[in-house]
């Protein structure tokens, strides 16, 4: 290896270059191998193991956990686990949809502000984004408690029993989810809206396009990159969300994150927890595949 | 872009209100005299004072737990951020400035994006399983602060690396080449040229990592030991047992700290941009 090359203005040999490259690479790469890749592989392995009597892992190969995930339990087939998986996907879908619907007006509103104050409005969106999720979620518990206006209005309209809180339940989960993920949707969408070519919108209006047509044919195609990033940033974490369904959904509205946590907590059934995690990972990969196909050239950061 | 339908503006402002309403409620109730229940008993600062002074607290034990948790949260955030910033910066330089084969690059890119896209509960589950195996080798992997630090660093590295990498990309290679053309040794080049130029990116990455650590609940929840509670864990625990105004005061302070942190990082990144 006596070949000499110039790399970023430096006269060096391929051997010396890759040795130094490895020096930079190895610390982080080894860390990620040790604490990300190997644990993930361990998780996959455990999914095919069995649970011992005392909750320990028994290393005999078995498909029992995956079967249980699909609903084949001790007492025949039951849809419970599949229902929770399906519900997680559904909640993530509805959350993304509502967040997108609310994000469009907000993104357009911010983009319409004078440039000087735009940063301020954006900062207003970023602050909740960085506020601890546990705090924001229990704050919704407080807000939905029976003594406060929301529950009273709901009771007066006959939507809820008087004197009861609006949580736990599906409604509270959706409220919590949408408010948690809205910033994830607004920020990427805004970066698309900011760069929108408004002459296209004006042209559409000049040609007497209806409002719906202006949106679907002039605005939506131009904001699609931001929208796709927003959806992926909302959909995937929403599927695996644990805090919000735990505090606002209760036992009535379990999602897959709660199911995993239960196996680590009360049930102490790690192999089954690992199997559920595999299910969630599979759903994540499907979502990413869909995203890669539709939003190829979109920057994540 | 000039003429927006008024309904758009109204919806936008209401949506922002929807984002802030929960925190507003918590802040209001943190100033409430009444300890139990939701009735308004008059204005008071005492819950804030009781956070700093156990003697003033109706529940001195809770105050001490909160103070210990504050220390744990800070140690966890600072230590994990320092480790992740060093590792992430090195990784970014390696990825951006060295000739890897296509195969290696695809592998490294996946390694980098994996923690960004994986739901955190999966990483948490994987760590719990891995630690239970590693515990037989070293007590470092007992659930507790060291385990939490390992968990936090693992998801922080990718974010630091991505931020620093984008800074490296925007810097371009001209200054690298100029330095080497002028016979700077590699060590001199790194110390006097590369790191100073990268500094804004490294600081931005570190701040991101720090905030991510403060924000994390799930990884800490799974890897915490009995003596290593963080503030989010304390709040979560108290939600189960019944929230007191002291917890509201704590949450409000955390929220205010977040506001300051966000404003600070906005300023830093805007100046460097």
From TrEMBL, chain A:
What Gene3D superfamilies is this protein classified in?
Answer: MetI-like (1.10.3720.10)
Q: Pfam families annotated for this entry?
A: BPD_transp_1 (PF00528)
* InterPro entries the record matches: MetI-like, MetI-like_sf
Query: Where does the sequence pass through the membrane?
Result: 21-49, 89-112, 119-139, 171-193, 214-244, 272-291
One GO location term (cellular component): plasma membrane
In the bilayer, the protein is annotated as: Multi-pass membrane protein
Domain (ABC transmembrane type-1): residue spans on this chain: 85-291
Enumerate the subcellular locations listed in this protein's record, separating them with semicolons. Answer: Cell membrane
The record's annotation in CDD domains points to:
TM_PBP2 (cd06261)
- Name the keywords, alphabetized: Cell membrane, Membrane, Transmembrane, Transmembrane helix, Transport
GO process terms (BP): transmembrane transport
Keyword Transmembrane listed:
yes
What does the similarity note say? Belongs to the binding-protein-dependent transport system permease family. CysTW subfamily.
Tell me which PANTHER family the record gives.
INNER MEMBRANE ABC TRANSPORTER PERMEASE PROTEIN YDCU-RELATED (PTHR42929:SF1), INNER MEMBRANE ABC TRANSPORTER PERMEASE PROTEIN YDCU-RELATED-RELATED (PTHR42929)
The name under which this protein is listed is Spermidine/putrescine transport system permease protein PotB
Give the originating organism: Calidithermus roseus
Q: What is the lineage of its organism?
A: Bacteria, Thermotogati, Deinococcota, Deinococci, Thermales
From TrEMBL, chain B:
Q: Start and end of every ABC transmembrane type-1 domain?
A: 70-265
Q: Which GO terms describe its cellular component?
A: plasma membrane
Q: Which N-terminal residues, if any, form the signal peptide?
A: none
Topologically, how does it sit relative to the membrane?
A: Multi-pass membrane protein
Entry superkingdom: Bacteria
What GO terms describe the biological role, i.e. biological process, of this protein? transmembrane transport
Q: Write the record's keywords in alphabetical order, separated by commas.
A: Cell membrane, Membrane, Transmembrane, Transmembrane helix, Transport
**Compartments where found:** Cell membrane
- Keyword Transport in the entry? The reply is yes
- Give me the segments passing through the membrane: 7-31, 66-95, 107-131, 143-164, 193-214, 247-264
Coiled-coil residues: none
Q: Which Pfam families has this protein been placed in?
A: BPD_transp_1
Family, according to the entry, reads as follows:
Belongs to the binding-protein-dependent transport system permease family. CysTW subfamily.
Protein's name according to its UniProt entry? Inner membrane ABC transporter permease protein YdcV
Organism the protein comes from? Calidithermus roseus
């Amino acid at each position: 290896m006596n070949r000499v090359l110039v790399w970023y203005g430096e006269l060096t040999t391929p051997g010396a270059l890759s040795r130094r490259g490895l020096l930079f690479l190895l610390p982080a790469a080894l860390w990620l191998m040790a604490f990300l890749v190997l644990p993930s592989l361990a998780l996959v392995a455990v999914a095919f193991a069995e649970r011992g009597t005392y909750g320990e892992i028994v290393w005999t190969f078995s498909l029992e956990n995956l079967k249980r995930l699909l609903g084949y339990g001790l007492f025949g087939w039951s849809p419970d686990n599949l229902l929770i998986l399906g519900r997680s996907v559904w909640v993530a879908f509805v959350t993304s949809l509502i967040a997108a619907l609310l994000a469009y007006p907000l993104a357009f509103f911010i983009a319409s502000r004078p440039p000087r104050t735009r940063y301020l409005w954006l900062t207003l969106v970023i602050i909740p984004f960085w506020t601890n999720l546990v705090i924001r979620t229990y704050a919704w518990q407080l807000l939905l408690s029976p003594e406060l206006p929301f529950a009273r209005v709901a009771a007066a309209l006959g939507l809820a029993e008087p004197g009861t809180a609006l949580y736990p339940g599906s409604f509270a989960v959706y409220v919590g989810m949408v408010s948690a993920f809205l910033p994830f949707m607004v920020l990427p969408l805004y970066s698309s809206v900011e760069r929108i070519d408004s002459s296209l919108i004006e042209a559409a209006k000049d040609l007497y396009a209806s409002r719906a047509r202006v949106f679907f044919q002039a605005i939506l195609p131009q904001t699609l990159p931001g929208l796709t990033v927003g959806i992926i940033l909302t959909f995937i974490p929403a599927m695996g969300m644990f805090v919000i369904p735990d505090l606002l959904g209760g036992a009535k509205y379990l999602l897959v994150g709660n199911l995993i946590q239960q196996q680590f907590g009360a049930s102490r059934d790690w192999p089954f927890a690992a199997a559920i995690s595999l299910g969630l990972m599979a759903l994540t990969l499907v979502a990413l595949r869909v995203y890669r196909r539709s939003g190829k050239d979109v920057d994540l950061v | 872009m000039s003429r927006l339908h008024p309904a758009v503006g109204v919806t936008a402002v209401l949506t922002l209100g929807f984002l802030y309403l929960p925190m507003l409620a918590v802040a209001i109730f943190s100033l409430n005299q009444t300890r139990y229940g939701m009735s308004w008993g008059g204005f008071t600062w005492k819950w804030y004072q009781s956070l700093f002074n156990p003697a003033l607290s109706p529940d001195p034990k809770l105050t001490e737990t909160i103070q210990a948790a504050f220390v744990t949260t800070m140690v966890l955030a600072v230590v994990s951020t320092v480790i992740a910033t060093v590792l992430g910066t090195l990784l970014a330089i390696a990825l951006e400035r060295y000739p890897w084969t296509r195969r290696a690059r695809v592998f490294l890119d996946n390694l980098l994006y994996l923690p960004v896209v994986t739901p955190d509960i999966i990483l948490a589950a994987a760590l719990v399983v891995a630690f239970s195996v590693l515990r037989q080798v070293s007590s470092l992997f007992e659930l507790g602060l060291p385990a939490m630090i390992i968990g936090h660093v693992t998801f922080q590295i990718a974010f630091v690396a991505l931020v620093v990498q984008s800074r490296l990309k925007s810097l371009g290679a001209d200054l690298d080449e100029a330095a080497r053309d002028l016979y700077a040794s590699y060590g001199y080049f790194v110390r006097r040229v590369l790191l100073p130029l990268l500094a804004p990116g490294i600081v931005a990455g570190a701040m991101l990592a720090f905030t991510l650590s403060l924000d994390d609940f799930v990884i800490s929840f799974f890897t915490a030991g009995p003596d290593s509670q963080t503030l989010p864990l304390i709040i979560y625990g108290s939600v189960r047992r019944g929230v007191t105004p002291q917890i509201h005061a704590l949450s409000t302070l955390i929220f205010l700290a977040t506001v300051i942190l966000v404003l600070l990082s906005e300023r830093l990144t805007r100046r460097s941009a």
